[in-house]
Design brief:
It contains four helices and two strands; from the N terminus they run H-E-H-H-E-H. By secondary structure, it is an alpha+beta fold.
Length: about 110
Amino acid sequence: MQHLNFVRKQTTLRSFLELLLAEKLSPTGYALAAQGVALHNCLPGFSHVHAMPLFPDTVLPRMWICDAVKVATHNDDELENIACVAPGRRQFILFSPEAVADLYMGPFG
């Protein structure tokens, strides 16, 4: 428990997508993810052209791009989420808010 099991670095969207494609063809099978990327930073104008009427204008859209990874149970507190999976499939298991105490070890914070 001396090191993280991932590497964090900044890159452009184009470079990340090229790396994702290259890794798909690689035998190593490393998991790659771009998480919580603010759309206005990498795709200016996208949010305007593809407005989301379910959210107020004050919500700044973010995107997550990854390959076939499994994500542990977690709570996106105070984040509004809409999942769009293209291409492929993704399974979501949703729990009621009352189940939070049974999903995590120890108290929040």
